[in-house]
Amino acid sequence: MSFSDWDTQCMMLALEEAKRSAERGEVPVGAVLTRGDSILAHGGNAQIELSDPSAHAEIRVLREAGIRHGNYRLPGTTLYVSLEPCTMCCGALVHARVATVMFAAREPKAGAVISTATVLDNPALNHRVEWREGLLEEHSSDLLRVFFRDRRSARG
Fold first, then answer.
1. Contact between residue 74 and residue 62 where contact means Cβ atoms under 8 Å apart
2. Mean pLDDT, to the nearest integer, of 143-148?
3. How far apart are CA 59 and CA 92, in angstroms?
4. What is the DSSP string of 56-107?
5. How far is Cα 109 from Cα 27, in angstroms, rounded to an integer?
6. Cα–Cα distance, 8 to 127 (Å, whole number)
7. pLDDT in tens, 7-60
8. What is the largest CA-CA distance in the chain?
C-alpha cells in the first residue's frame, strides 16, 4: 500500500501534535483534518488539560473545523491520526461525514476501526468512512512506547 508525499506530510504533523500532547502529560495522539491540499485543523489529545473525556485529538480537530466552516458536516475530508480511533471517535467521523481516516498504529485495547471492533465497516450506518492504516506506524508506536515506559518509571 503506497501513500503520497502529502499523506506523509500530514501524518508527520499529526505526530508532531502527538509529541506536544505528551509534553503536556497527555497520551500522545495527534490528528490533522484536510480537504484536498488544505489543512482545516490539527491538534492533539487534551482530556487531562481540559478535564474532558471527549477531548481526543480526533474530536478536537472535528470541532475546530466545524466551527471554522460553520458546519458540523465535513464531507470530502481526510483525517490523519497517529493512533487508531476509538468507538467514540469513529462515531464522530461517521456523523461528520469524513470521507477517509488514515491512522498510523493500531490500538489493541480500544481501537474501533480494526482492533477491537469494526465500527466504520458497519453496514447499518448511514455513512461509510474509508480507512487506511500503517503510515509511519513505527514512529507512532515508538512515541507511545516511550511515553508509557516513562510514565511507569515515574510512578516508581
1. yes
2. 96
3. 7
4. -HHHHHHHHHHHHHT-S--TTEEEEEEE---HHHHHHHHHHT--EEEEEE--
5. 14
6. 26
7. 999 999 999 999 999 999 999 999 999 999 999 999 999 999 999 999 999 999
8. 48
Confidence grade of residue 154 (pLDDT, cut at 50, 70, 90): confident
Nearest to 72 by CA among 43, 90, 96: 96
Residue 70 has which C-alpha cell? 460553520
Name the helix (H) or strand (E) containing 20.
helix 5-23
Cell digits of residue 47: 482530556
Element (H, E) at 138: helix 137-155
- Which residues does the annotation mark as catalytic? 58
pLDDT band at 78 (very low <50, low <70, confident <90, very high): very high
Burial 118-143 (b: 16+ CB within 10 A, else e): ebbeeeeeeeebebebebbbebbeeb
- The 3-state DSSP class for residue 43 equals strand
Q: How far apart are CA 110 and CA 45, in angstroms?
A: 15
The helix/strand/coil state of 131 is strand
* 13 Cβ contact partners less than 8 Å away, ≥ 6 residues apart: 30, 32, 39, 42, 80
